[in-house]
Amino acid sequence: MKKSIFLYSLVLILISGAVVASNYGDDVYDSNLIAPIKKSKKDPHENYNKMMDVIMSPRCINCHPNDHVPKQADDGHPHYFGIARGENNHGFQAINCATCHQNTNNDYSGVPGAPEWSLAPAEMFWEGLSRKEIAESMMDPVRNGGRTAEETMHHLTEHELVLWAWQPGIKADGTPREIPPVPLDEYKKAVKAWIANGAVIPEN
Ligand code: HEC
Ligand code: HEC
Asked: Considering the entire predicted model, what is its pTM?
């Protein structure tokens, strides 16, 4: 009998030891709470990563191709009807982008639209580049249209072709286009904070 009580208490002591031990480590205690709160492991490049998650989305890359052909949909297939950049990124005369793409989405025909719909100039190509390479290109005045960091910030947070990505309309097959993976407000805040903190591009 004595022996079993001894064993029983030993087991209890071991269990409580394990419980206490498991509460150490990364957890933080709030004196008002019994349960520990998990300390969030903060990403030092959180703003950069939010911004790049948006930029890598097909809604952006489709218009920043590495050839002269705009891309379509989430798989980035070449634009139907043999559409290409033409002389000034607005398509060839007979089939100008604006022949089909109006100032707003046409949800009946499935043609997306926004003011100044055209292909990003060749030097602003992003398709096929890594996050880091895109960020570098975007901040390089030789390739970004001579923009300062401040001007790039305005383009990224205010330009109508950028904002279109969060209201991309309905596809020709009647289903909605995917929007970028970060909500617009959160993305804008991240871009502004990233630029304000020196636009640091991490190694990977
Ligand atoms: C309909 C086509 C289209 C879409 C969609 C589009 N862009 Fe662009 N983008 C352009 C064009 C055209 C320019 C050149 C405008 C200029 O230089 O004034 C450009 C230029 C830029 C620039 C400035 C150049 C540089 O390299 O820094 C940035 C930044 C940019 N786009 C970001 C984006 C982001 C982010 C998205 C998605 C949220 C996006 N774009 C979606 C057509 C598009
Ligand atoms: C003959 C009509 C027509 C012309 C001209 C045209 N487009 Fe399109 N475009 C469409 C249609 C229709 C879709 C939608 C396809 C779908 O969603 O299935 C589309 C989709 C797109 C998309 C895909 C958007 C996305 O993220 O999925 C881009 C980018 C695009 N067009 C760019 C251009 C550019 C740039 C030009 C001029 C160089 C142009 N288009 C000329 C009809 C046209």
From this structure: 0.84
